[in-house]
Design a protein that fits this description.
This protein is of the alpha/beta class. It folds into two domains: 256 residues, TIM Barrel; 75 residues, no CATH class. It has 13 helices and 17 strands. The strands form four sheets. It has a nine-stranded mixed β-sheet, sandwiched between helices. A three-stranded antiparallel β-sheet has the order 12-13-14. Helix 3 links the parallel strand 5 and strand 6.
Length: 388
């Protein structure tokens, strides 16, 4: 499979959000020339690695600048990285190039520079639709900042995605529904990612939760938020193409679809992960050093060093194909699996009879009304389920 995505990780933020378990750190001074050299060296390393794995043609469909807060990068740094990638891989005609940003860091003159550099999609970390929710989430912007930024950039770039978090203990369902409807009517966004708040290990929220100082909502409350959000987005002509992702027609995330379809991507930057199908049709994972200074040191050398390269065993990689593919509304084609011995055929039959899943022409999918219990379904149909 020669389809390819490239993820560029920028590890720095203005502050660390209490719910965030990503590899992000408070912004400090950095040498832009050093970082550019390190990014270029690792991109060249991956080009050589892919050639060694018999990639003859690179169908580069997406590039994603994530983090951290990559809008804190200087636009010239983004431009130079893109020039390097284009020289080595060549952009597909309709390539999607996304930059993540927070409403506090993206002003009109900077978005113009990012667009000139080659960015054609913005993913905006709005997260909350009122100041109370934003304070709860530890965000540094307020709703006024969000509205100002969206008013400015909607005339500059057509493809805008927004991230929102719902089912907070401080949220009122009626208020959430009203705010979401108003927000969608006001701004012509093309893509929306809506996530339930998950308390992840290693975060400030996790520590507070264990001390009894933070509450989570019940499953029944979460379900109300989930189906209300889903219904409002449907009424506003958004297609639910993945459990937490909704888009206007033809504006689905090309980059994230590579992950969900278990295709090829390379991860550049501190802590980034690559997944590649090698010449023996084995899944290979390449892991970068996580600490920014360690990654930088290892990528400034003439010989780029990774933390480790692992061949993923067949059963694990095929369970991953199924687990990730079932997140999609289209489901997963079972012909992608070489070995189906881990499937529980009796459970699959039972779930099919109950109308929870369906199988047509070897394509297995979860019926849309049961997306919210994806993990439960996966555990049912996979023997010795290995993923958390």
């Amino acid at each position: 499979m020669d389809k390819l995505g490239i993820y560029i990780h920028w590890p720095y933020c203005i502050s660390k959000c209490p719910y965030c378990d990503f590899n992000s750190h408070r912004l400090k001074s950095y040498d832009s020339d050093e970082w550019l050299k390190a990014y270029k060296n690792q991109i060249k390393y991956f080009k050589e690695y892919l050639i060694s794995q018999n990639f003859k043609k690179f169908n580069l469909t997406s590039i994603f600048f994530g983090g951290g807060t990559p809008s804190l990068m200087h636009p010239k740094l983004v431009e130079e990285i893109l020039l390097c990638i284009n020289k080595l891989f060549n952009f597909e005609k309709n390539i999607e190039i996304t930059l993540e940003s927070n409403p506090t860091n993206l002003e009109l003159n900077k978005i113009s520079d990012f667009i000139m550099a080659g960015i054609n999609r913005i993913s905006l970390g709005v997260q909350g639709l009122n100041d109370t929710d934003l304070r709860y989430l530890g965000r540094t912007h307020n709703i006024s900042d969000t509205l100002t930024i969206l008013n400015l950039i909607q005339n500059k770039i057509d493809n805008i995605s927004v991230d929102l978090i719902y089912a907070l203990s401080c949220q009122n369902l009626k208020t959430w529904k009203k705010e979401l409807k108003t927000f969608l009517k006001r701004f012509p966004i093309k893509h929306l990612s809506a996530y339930q708040l998950v308390i992840e290990k290693g975060t400030k929220f996790y520590d507070l939760f264990n001390k009894g100082e933070l509450k989570s909502v019940s499953d029944s409350i979460y379900k109300q938020f989930y189906f209300s959000t889903k219904s409002i987005l449907k009424d506003n002509k958004f297609d639910q193409y993945e459990i937490s992702n909704f888009s206007k027609p033809n504006f689905f995330s090309k980059h994230n679809s590579i992950y969900w379809n278990s295709e090829n991507w390379i991860g550049v930057g501190p802590g980034a992960i690559s997944r590649i199908w090698n010449i023996k049709n084995q899944r290979v994972e390449l892991e970068n050093f996580k600490k920014p200074s360690t990654w930088l040191k290892n990528c400034l050398n003439k010989t780029v060093n990774l933390k480790k390269i692992t061949k993923v065993n067949l059963i694990t990689s095929e369970q991953e194909i199924l687990m990730m593919g079932l997140r999609l509304n289209q489901g997963v084609n079972l012909n992608k699996l070489q070995n189906k011995t881990f499937l529980d055929k009796i459970e699959i039959l039972n779930l099919k009879k109950e109308g929870i899943i369906n199988i047509k022409q070897d394509n297995l999918r979860i019926n849309e009304d049961f997306f919210n219990v994806h993990d439960f379904i996966v555990r049912k149909i996979i023997n010795n389920y290995q993923f958390s």
